[in-house]
Automatic annotation (TrEMBL):
Entries under PANTHER family matching the protein: 4FE-4S CLUSTER CONTAINING PARA FAMILY ATPASE PROTEIN (PTHR43534:SF1), MIND SUPERFAMILY P-LOOP ATPASE CONTAINING AN INSERTED FERREDOXIN DOMAIN (PTHR43534)
Keywords: ATP-binding, Iron, Iron-sulfur, Metal-binding, Nucleotide-binding
Key word Nucleotide-binding present: yes
UniProt GO MF annotations: ATP binding; iron-sulfur cluster binding; metal ion binding
Cross-referenced PROSITE patterns: 4FE4S_FER_1 (PS00198), 4FE4S_FER_2 (PS51379)
Pfam families referenced in this protein's UniProt entry, alphabetically: Fer4_21, ParA
Protein name: MinD superfamily P-loop ATPase containing an inserted ferredoxin domain
């Protein structure tokens, strides 16, 4: 039996959302997320003076056949070109290609966002999907909400961990992974949140894995699981299942259940 059922799963890694690839949720609702604005040129009005191209510090404008052409990916939405255009040929239009999804999956409810390439305000999007998930969890009486956060220590990470009860940091036994772990623990401690560490693929470099364990012990951060590299994890992903579903009696499943029990209870 699962330790937790009817969960509220929230994928806060909006720049590279992937939980839906594993859980295949049924989408009840799709919402538009406006991340900002970008510039658009009216070619009928543009006189080709080139001022916008000259002053754009993002190199998002190029003169083509005597007209200004704006690269939406490079455009930062600063509106400088809009303000300095002598003939008002440029307008600022909403950037609305990003989406937020609300639905259900085999273990409960799911909310996630997908930020379109080149669009910004990932932290704002995380805040919005968290607010949506909070309301759904209250309505559906979900006992646990699990937020899958992005890597790093940037704005979307801050938006993910603000106001949560506990944080689980997953790391790997590499020098870069160890360095990122230290930065993440330092960040989380500023919020005075209970913190747990899982070392994934620990058998790939046992020397660094022991260094991570020793450092966590020194910092009083519990290491709740040492997960060995396992081909079964890859096989489970290929089948579109979690390892708990794919191999319910495996050592990996038992390690994960033990870690979950320690974190939750």
């Amino acid at each position: 039996m699962s330790l937790v059922s009817n969960v509220m799963a929230v994928d806060c890694d909006v720049d590279a959302s992937n939980l839906y690839l594993l859980f295949h949720p049924f989408h009840d609702k799709e919402l538009v997320f406006v991340s900002g604005k970008h510039a658009k040129v009216d070619n009928e009005v543009c006189i080709g003076c080139g001022r916008c191209e000259e002053l754009c510090r993002f190199d998002a404008i190029e003169m083509t056949q005597g007209k200004a052409v704006i690269d939406e990916i490079s455009c930062d939405g600063c509106a400088l070109c809009y303000r300095i255009c002598p003939v008002d040929a440029i307008t600022m239009i909403p950037v609305d290609k990003s989406r937020m999804y609300i639905g259900t999956f085999r273990h409960g409810n799911m909310v996630y966002g997908r930020l379109a390439p080149g669009e910004e305000n990932s932290g704002k999007m995380v805040n919005q999907i968290r607010e949506i998930s909070k309301n759904i969890a209250k309505e559906k009486l979900c006992p646990v909400t699990i937020l899958d956060g992005p890597p790093g220590i940037g704005c979307p990470v801050l938006s993910t961990i603000t106001g949560v009860d506990k944080v689980v940091i997953v790391t790997e036994p590499t020098l870069s992974g160890f360095s990122d772990l230290k930065r993440a623990v330092e960040l989380v401690r500023q919020y005075s949140l209970p913190t747990y560490v899982i070392i994934n693929k620990c058998t790939l470099n046992q020397t660094v894995a022991r260094q991570v364990e020793d450092w966590c012990a020194e910092k009083n951060v519990p290491v709740v699981a040492l997960l060995p590299f396992s081909p079964e994890m890859v096989e489970a992903l290929v089948e579109g299942k979690t390892i708990v579903e794919y191999r319910p009696q495996s050592d990996m499943t038992n390690l994960l259940k033990k870690a979950l029990s320690e974190i939750l209870f």
